[in-house]
Amino acid sequence: MNKTRRTILRGIGGAVICLPALECFGEITDKNAPVRFGAMFMPNGVNPPDWVPQGVGEAFELSPILTPLQKHRSNITVVSNLMNETSSSDHIKLTSAFLCGQNHVGQKSEASIDHLIAQKIGTGSRVPHLRLGTEPPRAQGYLTCSNVSWNEDNVLLAPELNPRVAFDRMFRDFNSPEARRKAQGQRSILDAVLHRSKSFSRDLSAYDKQKMDQYFSSIRELEEQLDKIITPPTKTAAGWTPSLSANETTKSRPPEEVPDNAEEYMDALIDLMILGMWTDTTRVATLMMGHGLSRKNFAFLDGVNNDHHVTSHHRNNPQLLKEYEIICRWHVQRLQRMMDKMALIDEGGSSLLDNSLMLFGAGMSQGNTHSGSNIPILLAGKAGGAMKTGRHIQTATNTQHSNLLLSVLQKMGVNRERFGKSTGTVDLS
């Protein structure tokens, strides 16, 4: 078999698996590794004193919310004093402006930076822009708070909520009814390419065989995780229990693609992002961890009794403030888990984390006041060496968030002089 960097294993049922970087594709160095971009949106803001680090530059201490990132302190850049859109706004406007610098409520705005970056670096990938989410969109009038990705025509680019659909989009090519039929009986995508993978692996070096085993194990683990969270064996789909009698038809059955366990669901989506970027299936991935008005119930966390939106409107109630902190830290822990895994993926002297730039944060400072001032934002990864990390950058008060977005665009090779409401850039070098 001819082995090239773009080698793809194809099998029955439309199975398509892009392979990770291997020695047989040529010398593996951090010079030829592609740079990836990811964005993770956290709804409902934070309590700023629990987010903003103490100290600036390299001499900073992680805040209570950011403590899960202690082992990755040298790989993050926290940027404070950024103002999103205006100093005071609402969930809807601030969510839609998160990656655009301007809101999309009743006006034409910029395309989001994830879309622009995908146009620049994603066109050669099987999935140019992977967009994922965890909550269905709000009703008409609130759609803009259910989306952070937009194109040049002011059209929202909706996230995929079903991890199995996203998985199939990445690893299957249903180009015929026959392919779909054959896929029905497959327990694993790996079974579909078993013969091809054995043939391919026959002459691999020990290093490459180890990488292939690691990669296939990750795929198998994700498949098993999807089976578990989407089709629980001992209860109805997603743990749903009918609340209406048989003759009542006013309420439709919830979709099966929304799993019952919030943590397993989120982690499955994150694993999809990692696999996609690892194998060059995608170079740009966006995850909405909740929509901008999320009322997700976090009572599964110790010390939490309320939903996310309620805690964000804490009115300085000590109990709600504590619950708010726990919920926000849980979201940061998802980033920590992602960074843990990305740091272990070797790309020839550098890691997948080194060769990525992840933007993590919220569109508003805190839900209590609907403030757009000092929004919680951090960057993770070194963007292939273009980023100077391990810093807390404290910008001037109410620096436009667009300045940071413009700087990120430039780091990712998008040639722009202005973006959104930018008045300059943030020095990330």
Brief digest:
The chain is α/β, with parallel strands linked by helices. Helix content is 31%, strand content 13%. The model is unreliable at 1-5, 179-183 and 231-256 (pLDDT under 50).
CATH architecture of the largest domain: 3-Layer(aba) Sandwich
Number of helices: 12
Distance between the termini: 43 Å
- Strand content is 5-15%
CATH topology of the largest domain: Alkaline Phosphatase, subunit A
Q: Any low-confidence stretches, pLDDT <50, length ≥5?
A: 1-5, 179-183, 231-256
Order of helices and strands: EEEHEHHEHHHHHHEHHEEEEH
Tell me, rounded to a whole number, the average pLDDT.
Answer: 82
Q: Biggest β-sheet: count, sense, barrel?
A: 8 strands, mixed
CATH first level of the largest domain = Alpha Beta
| Relative helix content | 25-40%
Number of strands: 10
Describe the structure.
By secondary structure, this protein is of the alpha/beta class. The protein has two domains: 1-28 and 170-233, no CATH class; 33-161 and 283-429, Alkaline Phosphatase, subunit A (3-Layer(aba) Sandwich), CATH 3.40.720. Helices cover 31% and strands 13% of the residues. It has twelve helices and ten strands. It has helices at 48-51, 91-96, 113-121, 163-171, 177-184, 189-192, 194-201, 206-230, 262-278, 308-312, 318-343, 401-411, and strands spanning 8-10, 16-18, 36-41, 76-88, 130-133, 284-288, 356-361, 371-373, 377-380, 391-400. Strands 3, 4, 5, 6, 7, 8, 9 and 10 form an eight-stranded mixed β-sheet that branches. It has a two-stranded antiparallel sheet with strand order 1-2. Helix 4 (163-171) runs parallel beside helix 9, helix 8 (206-230) packs antiparallel against helix 9 and helix 9 (262-278) runs parallel beside helix 11 (318-343). Residues 1-5, 179-183 and 231-256 have low confidence and may be disordered.
